Amino acid sequence: MPSPLAELHLHLEGTLEPELIFELARRNGVTLPYRDLDDLRARYRFRDLQSFLDLYYANMATLRTAADFERLTWAYAERAHAGGVRHAEVFVDPQAHTARGVPTETVLRGVAAGLGRAESELGLTSGIIVCVLRDRPVAEARRMLEESLAAGVPLLGIGLDSAEVGYPPSLFADVFTAAAEAGLRRVAHAGEEGPPEYLWQALDVLGVERVDHGVRCLEDDVLVRRLAAEQVPLTVCPLSNVRLRVVDDLAAHPLRRMLDRGLLVTLNSDDPAYFGGYVDDNLRQCRDTLGLTGAELATLAANSVRASFAGAGRKAELLARLG
Ligand code: ADE
Ligand code: ZN
Question: Which domain holds residue 101?
Answer without folding.
Answer: 5-322
